[in-house]
Specification:
heterodimer, A: 232 residues, alpha+beta, Gyrase A, domain 2, Cyclophilin, 6 helices, 28% strand, elongated, B: 313 residues, 2 domains, nine-stranded antiparallel β-sheet, seven-stranded mixed beta barrel, 4 helices, 13% helix, 32% strand
Chain lengths: 232, 313
Amino acid sequence: MNDVRVVAAGDAALVAEFDDRIDVSVNRRAIAVAQALRHASLVGVRDIVTAYRTVTVYFDPLRVDAAELEGQMRAAAAVEPDARELDGPLVHVPVCYDAAFGPDLDVVAQFAGIGVREVIDLHASREYRVFMLGFVPGFAYMGTVDLRIALPRRSAPRTAVPAGSVAIAGGQTGVYPSQTPGGWHIIGRTPLALVSLDRSSPSLFAAGDRVRFHEVDRAAFEQIVRAQEFVP
Amino acid sequence: MSGGLLILAPGLMTTVQDSGRWGQQSIGVSVSGPMDPFAHRLANALVGNARAAATLEVTLSGPAVRFDDPRVVAVAGAEFDLFLDDVPVPKARPMVVGAGAVLRFGARHRGARAYLAVSGGFDVPLVLGSRATHLPTATGGWQGRTLRRDDYVPLGPASPKRHRAPGHTSVTIDAGPSVVRVIAGPDVERFAPEALEALVSAPYHVSVESNRMGFRLEGPVLRHGVKADILSDATPFGTLQVPGSGQPVLLMADRQTTGGYARLATVITADLGIAGQAAPGDALRFVVCNRAEALLALVRRERPLLALEGAPA
């Protein structure tokens, strides 16, 4: 387990890098290092951020000796991760795949040479992993999508993708937590609120979570929207 | 004693900032905070605030504000003409203002961003532990946005006796192309071998398409080894991210938490404020240094600030 590389990102961050690929076991190692370092509550550390294959530790250069921190990162990376402890809970996400919510369903179906019904079944039939969060608060990069519907992102991003939109691109899937520009193919919408910064746990998703999408009809979608409005 | 500040004129882009929304990047929440962290701290130190207290970041053209109770105030960072009740006053010095006093920013001479600190700090609600404004997601600060005329921004309780001796200015802004030191990486190996030489060979100009998220830079082309795209990865303040065009983007305070382009080099902490003082059209000249040089530069930058803040230097 000594295949980690530690590189500097300026004088106030160190990055521990694992194999350069989207892979559950690689991602699990990055998350394991992050958890070990968070658990250690190191003085002068400002933030610990995992990505697909890396963990970045932000620190105050006047309070942290970079060489010492590098040693701590290497030591954490040398421990075999325990998948049972590391992988997060299974999060169930209702999705309405109505054409009104999934403007790119037809494009995806054409790419795959299958019907829209099969696209929905392929997307909703497997368990995904949250590899990382980024882009905007609460946006989870999940994978891996069935290769048949793994078309590349749109050449021209949309300027405004509605909040809750469920989308796919290049083998990844994700849900837009808020209205933002976006270049992924939109195939449905969830009624769940994904992010709320005034909650103690602001994001529905965390890196390492497992996710399943469940198809719901328009009536169920509206019902869940209303139910959330009454949450105090 | 808890008053507020009335915005008579907002200036071009005035936001509430503190030392940043740290600790939440793992769920995609940006750090935000001041573009010139040293000037923000200097302003706070001059009025006796804690270094994390919220200040107003003033951009290119400044506001006019009215106080409704006695306060100690100071402006640090970019050099503007300042007027207190129409009388010129110096920058980077603490001033006692009375109830009803009006502070007005006039012409700008050097730098892009000034910080207005008021004793007691700006008392806007904490969002995930920070008062910083993140404009792209309309988070934090005063209603998540830039200040407007007639906004009334509440201030925390003031203790006017705590302000420091006047006359201390420790952060200077160089004239001409500002020199910004970088450390190579984290993706330097993904670039052509001559990319670092190209980076330091001539100044880069800050494009008009620049904001608190990042500066688009125009200068020598930086070539990648194979491709510009990487698996999305962390993006510290001061990262030089290079898309396929070979023209770098310098990531600033409101940057996203991760990005998908190779990162050639990263500005050292000591020089973040120099970059943060650049306006569209200004030139930045990059110089490569190592970790030891970066640490020495930071100690030099911090020493007068720490003395002013009352911490052991």
